[in-house]
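Quick start: read one record
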Amino acid sequence: MYDRPVVFLDLETTGATATYDRITEVGLIEANNGEFVREWSTLVNPGISIPPMIQSLTGISNEMVASAPSFEEIARELWLALEGRVLVAHNARFDYGFLKNEFRRLGKSFSAPVLCTVKLSRKLFPQFQRHNLDSLMSRHDIRCDARHRALGDARVLWHLAQAWREAPGEAAVIEATAKLLKTATVPTGLPDDTYTHIPEGPGVYLFYGLSEDNKDIPLYVGKSVNLRTRVMSHFSGDHRVHKDMRIAAEVKRIDWIETAGELGALIEEARLVKKLSPIHNRQLRRNTELCAWHWPGQRHDTAPQLISARELSGVEFRDLYGLFRSRRAAIEALREIAAEHQLCNAILGLEKRSAGTRGGACFAYQIKRCRGACTGAETTEAHALRLAAALTGLRVKAWPFPGRIGVRETSADGERCELHVLDQWCHLGTIKSEEELQALDDGSPRPLFDLDTYKILTRYFYNGKGRPDVVPLPAVTAS
């Protein structure tokens, strides 16, 4: 931060949600190459009431902002102060999100390189656990007579930069700053302004090359909650992986599909990788050999049967064990389970009984690695119980809803809302209106069960953050 123009910025707001709450105060300090230029601050009329708790924390009351300028009135001066500078803030995503939303309300697209002092402190001082502003002030002996006011906290960031200039020193801070900013170069095959057009919300991005006859060649499909940042990361820094180096040399066009949220991006990525088979995607490829072991009722007089993806839609998921990308992988997994638990390969159908062996004994029994269900030394009921216990970890999760559902996702700015229609771990489609749901019901064939979609959805429902917005949907009636 000592080798470039920066602005140390802090905002006070009516709350923590950038899409709803508004800015009440702006404070900033401009610096060029580590030298102080000027400081500036102003109260801002948010146009909404400030909650009592926020008034108590900041000392900014509704009366104080009543006669203050609106954000629209300060927008031009603030824009000029930020233009061409690195935005330095504590928990920078918070301040950056509020600025983007305030400018967006005025029809302006704000973008700036952002340096978070929380992340910078962690990089410079990994031996410490706490990096909130009060902890940093205490650690570096920084005083502030206007804590939780915009200019007061911006001054703390300026003093923090001066303290770090002494220790760990300018060189260490500049190196850490460069790594965090990860400045990206535009690949030679793309226009110079490529990154400015890519949105900063969630979605899927696609890299294309060109064939000798000028046709698109899908190179790579990826997803992110911030498309622009993720795309730039492929072409930034000194730590570019070999795959990214190849993509940079081959890419001629970048396309993207915006989604309302991360779930939509994950589902769309999996779909597009299977559809396009991009050269540099190794995971999520089309899998035509998907299969599972089917053992209804865990009956002792039947063995698990291997069924294909096309047969999965007609069975109960609680009767399925393991989801494998090939028959070979499924058979090998069952063999390993049999060996570990001394189960009978003959009973499991993994080995043909030899007519010449005593009592139809399997090979494992002859070398004392089977407890003898094939000879009657163990009952088939006991064998089935042990098999059921051994297969517990492979049991496929049952669909946790009575029938078909929709999962509603709304974008952070509230402008995009999507409903992902799901049933029995299958993604049936993503819609934005009742008319689209009707069209989905009328003409769309049910997709095959897909392993990657199953993994995405089980992680989302069982390990995801927050509670999904689930909408029950009526069953499709046969026409």
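The chain has four domains: 5-181, 194-276, 291-394, 405-472.
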